[in-house]
Design a protein that fits this description.
Layout (H helix, E strand, L loop, with lengths): L1 H4 L3 H14 L9 H13 L3 H14 L7 H8 L3 H5 L7 H15 L3 H13 L2 H4 L6 H14 L1
Amino acid sequence: MGRFIAGEGAAAIASFFSASDRQSFTEYWSGTPHHILGPFLQRCSGDAQAWLQAIGQVKRTLRHQFRGRVWHAAAFISDEREFLAQPCACYAPADLLMWQGMKAEIAGDADGAMAAYRAWLATPEHQRGFEIDRLWPTFAQWRVDVLAR
């Protein structure tokens, strides 16, 4: 994340995918860094097609992997109720805030995106899930900072 925020673009994205590929199952059990965040970073770099392709692939191929969390994150784009009804819902309310931020940002709603990212940041950590490397808090704060400019 740090390299991308620092403006290293494509090299940072390649490094991000390489690093997330090497993470152990316990470190990235949700699958969201690789399958959701990486493509979103590509979108932030101007490659909207990479985002759409990644979401489509997730919806076609990852229905039951990662406890269904990645598939439900992608499905949220279509139906918020379906997302909240997922089997692994213990962190769904907090996850929903993150995905709402991304969805609002993609729709060009900077205020809505900032509100969602800020609400996620204000959610107590134990309700957001187990964070090892602070990836998601760093991402959320970065997006708030960028959108506030």
